[in-house]
Write a structure and sequence with these properties.
The structure is a single chain. With 525 residues, the protein is an alpha+beta fold. 26% of the residues lie in helices and 24% in strands. Strands 1, 14, 15, 16, 17, 20, 21, 22 and 23 form a nine-stranded mixed sheet that branches. A hairpin with a 5-residue loop joins strand 7 and strand 8 (91-96).
Length: 525
């Protein structure tokens, strides 16, 4: 799906927090309240061009999509009130909500929808959403409130993706200029249809959004939403405890700091995400499935979840997480931790223990690997150390190399200059993973290739029949046990710590919850 990792994996240095202030005084709720969210950098306020999670979060407040996820993560109406799908599943007709206007008062029309997706599919636009929607053949305007999508082939995740990151942009704001050149729109003066609109933007400081009096839905329950540039997650937790913040997403290691604080409510939300170790299968070493199975069997995932994650994760079976709308194969056995069986598999792959208990091949060469991990996140750094220790028990010599996330992705993963890396995927709630593990696909960074997996993943995305899709994805997950694309570690839960005064947040990951920000409210103290 989306080719650049930030939109799917989330940037590890994104910081999210919410602070309530009304009339300049913290701790005041009601209709005059201000919700404050913190980002690490100045965002791009354009849903077509957004490249990292901070930009995506603010765009979800400013730019609604045709659809949005409901509390179960399934597609629900937003700018589109209803839709029909032809029996061949290749034409989608959307009936748009009437009387919607852009923040500048211009009427919203079907032409805006066509313009947005034409931009997404235009290589010159710089959009990173093109792979999500490359299945679109053309977008047609039937009338001012009706738009049709013609697909090249049936594509079951289509509705889910429309409600994920695909906000609609105003065609009239880009007349005579390219999106990439519209610096004023993208940085300071965006025009959306959402419940809040930008009233001021100060680079390096903050972006203030005020309630949109023309919003087509129920009036927002907050007066303002302010995005501030905040550099430290530890500072966020400290301010939450001091009553200066209302919501932060925290790491498992920070749970103890909030224990016993009655003013803070901590909840864990299942999100469609899987953490994994990826092996470069372009290298001859990792081509045999038996070696990848052996490495996977050598990792004690339960100890990892109990220790590093403090229990805030689910035990994995394959790459499709439990949060994927009922497509997780409960009937399959969980991944095993068995060093005896692991050693037998290593031997089958040509690696046996030599002097000192180290694994070595027939030439006497030791099994040495280098694992890349992004630095600065204690959860991932500690997970890497735990894996290192587990590998050492079976005789694998693992070196950890920590580096900046952007460099790791750009300079090593995308260029295939690695042996192994520890990372994660944030995915839409649909179980489609062809873009990640299909042969030759843009996001298949590990170069996994299995014809049976390709066939099952294509079958799963080519029909809207839920039963048929479940069969395809159950078979794929069973196949992963024999030929694992990656070493899946766990399915993390998003840990949200919030003031008891903050209400109306749906039980979703924060990126999807912000699609419903008009329902957020801060109760008076």
């Amino acid at each position: 799906m989306t080719p650049w990792r930030a939109t799917r994996r989330g940037l590890p240095w994104l910081l999210f927090a919410v602070q309530s202030i009304a009339c300049g005084r913290p701790g005041v709720g009601g209709a005059g309240a201000t919700l404050r969210l913190a980002l690490i950098n100045d965002p791009i306020m354009n849903p077509v061009l957004a490249s990292e999670l901070g930009s995506i979060l603010i765009n979800k407040v400013i730019f609604p999509g045709l659809l949005r996820p409901d509390s179960a993560g399934k597609p629900a109406p937003d700018l589109a009130l209803s839709w029909e799908i032809t029996p061949d599943q290749r034409r989608y007709t959307f009936h748009l909500r009437p009387n919607v206007v852009w923040h500048d008062g211009t009427p919203f029309r079907a032409e805006d929808v066509k313009f947005t997706f034409d931009q997404i599919l235009d290589p010159k636009s710089g959009s990173l959403l093109w792979s999500d929607f490359s299945v679109i053949d053309q977008v047609e305007v039937a009338d001012s409130l009706t738009v049709r999508f013609e697909l090249k082939a049936p594509f079951a995740p289509f509705l889910t993706l429309l409600g994920h990151n695909a906000g609609i942009a105003p065609a009239h704001a880009f007349t005579g200029r390219a999106m990439l050149d519209a610096t004023d729109f993208n940085r300071t003066k965006p025009i959306g249809t959402g419940p809040f609109q930008v009233s001021s933007a100060v680079s390096g400081s903050s972006i203030t959004l005020s309630a949109n009096p023309r919003y087509y839905g129920p009036a927002p329950k907050l007066a303002r939403v302010v995005f501030k540039i905040v550099p430290s997650q530890n500072a966020q937790v400290a301010q939450l405890r001091a009553g200066e913040l209302d919501l932060v997403t925290i790491e498992p290691g920070q749970l103890a700091q909030l224990a016993g604080d009655s003013s803070v409510k901590v909840s864990q939300v299942s999100v469609p995400q899987h953490y994994y170790v990826g092996f470069n299968q372009q290298l001859p070493l990792f081509k045999p499935a038996v070696l990848r199975r052996a490495l996977g069997m050598a990792v004690d995932r339960q100890a990892l979840i109990d220790g590093v994650l403090k229990g805030s994760a689910d035990f994995p079976t394959g790459t499709i997480p439990r949060a994927s709308q009922g497509f997780f194969a409960d009937e399959l056995p969980p991944l095993q931790y068995d060093t005896t069986k692991a050693l037998a598999l290593f031997a089958e792959a040509g690696w046996r223990r030599g002097s000192g208990g180290r694994l070595q091949n027939a030439k006497g060469e030791p099994l040495r690997l280098t694992l890349l991990v992004d630095k600065g996140n204690p959860t991932r750094e500690q997970a890497a150390v735990a894996i290192q220790q587990d590998f050492k028990r079976v005789g694998v010599d693992l070196t950890i190399r920590a580096m900046e996330f952007a460099s790791m992705v750009r300079d090593y993963i995308q260029t295939k200059r690695y042996e192994a890396y520890l990372i994660w995927w944030n995915t839409p709630s649909d179980p489609d993973q062809y873009g990640y593990y299909g042969t030759g696909q843009a996001n298949n960074d590990v170069s996994y290739s299995n014809r049976r997996a390709d066939s099952l993943l294509r079958a799963g995305r080519a029909t809207n029949d839920v039963a048929a899709r479940k069969r395809a994805y159950a078979a794929f997950q069973a196949l992963e046990l024999e030929d694992p694309p990656v070493l899946v570690l766990f399915y993390p839960r998003e840990i949200q710590a919030r003031s008891a005064r903050l209400r109306g947040v749906p039980p979703l990951g924060i990126r999807d919850a912000l699609r419903w920000v008009e329902q957020f409210e801060l109760a008076p103290e």
